Amino acid sequence: MTSSVAKVTSRATARKRRTRPEPFTIVSMIGVGLFMVLCVVPFWMIVSGSFTDEQKLATTGYSLLPKPFSLASYEMIFTGPTVLSAYTASVFITVVGTALALAFTSGLSWVIARRLPYVSRPLAVFAFIPMLFTGGLVPLYLLVTQYLKLQNTYFAVILPLLIAPFLVFIQVSAFRQLPEEIMESARIDGAGEMQIFFRIGLPLSKPILAVVGLFYAVHYWNEWFTALLFISETDKYPLPLLLQNLVSNVSFSQMLPTSSGQSTPVYQLRLALTVVTIGPILLAYPFAQRYFVKGITLGATKG
User: Fold this and answer.
1) Alpha carbon of 122 to those of 19, 54, 119, 141, 160: distances in Å?
2) Apex CA 215: angle with CA 213 and CA 217, to 5°?
């Protein structure tokens, strides 16, 4: 009887020890919580400032609550054609650019990962050289404007960013971890390299495809410097370039329509345009979150 009571007591004690958090876990949770606060508070200040009256922002600055509440900047943004055309440009650049970049990166990575004779090694050298050095800004400008004739087109932003060598390296590592037995079985059944790529390689690589696609989408959505170089027509400005011009040049805000007798709410407009710019790409993360950690882990180790 005594031994059974002792066993029950020891089990209860062990259970309490297992449920009690370790000091490292407590410190980690506190650290992550503080870091989350440091990230959320500035973002909330931007959102709050975008709904705060312009005069209040000019006199007292930001506040946690928008007092007095104002929608003047959002009315300016969504009632005129400037921001809507910028939204259209950013969506086109992001969607088309991400699709093309993912297709080219996947195809290039597959050929390099398969170690095909006379092909894989030259393509690997060709893809990885830009990680060390580039041709420079002047040759790029001459290539896009003088030879390709892409100035003032969206493809002038898409094509220079089409392949990221670092993402090629990650995707090559992921492709090399695919089970070789499955591909050998498909080859025995008569499948060619293209069939293996589309029917086996891509379906088994959804996590890494989601991660690479998300990286490309964020890059294209936030890109403004390439657009600054090659796009001079204001009706083709993407959102980041529109925001950059608004921040650097106050007079640029006069492009946006205002009601008669109203001055342009410059400070409030900057914050509202920031919210409008980062909103869509921020909402894209939850859809790729389940693939993100698995995809990064899959492409971070070599098989």
Assistant:
1) 56, 58, 6, 26, 21
2) 65
Q: What are phi and psi of 69, to 5 degrees?
A: -75, 140
Enter the DSSP assignment of 262: P
d(CA 174, CA 197): 13
Closest CA to 107 of 194, 203, 23: 194
Helix H segments across 51-145?
54-60, 72-79, 81-113, 120-128, 137-142
What are the angstrom distances between the C-alpha of 87 and each of 82, 95, 144, 185, 225? Answer: 9, 12, 23, 47, 17
Length of the chain: 303
Closest CA to 243 of 217, 214, 279, 211: 279
DSSP three-state, residue 260: coil
pLDDT digits (tens, 9 = 90+) for 62-85: 778 888 888 888 887 777 677 788
Whole-model pTM: value is 0.78
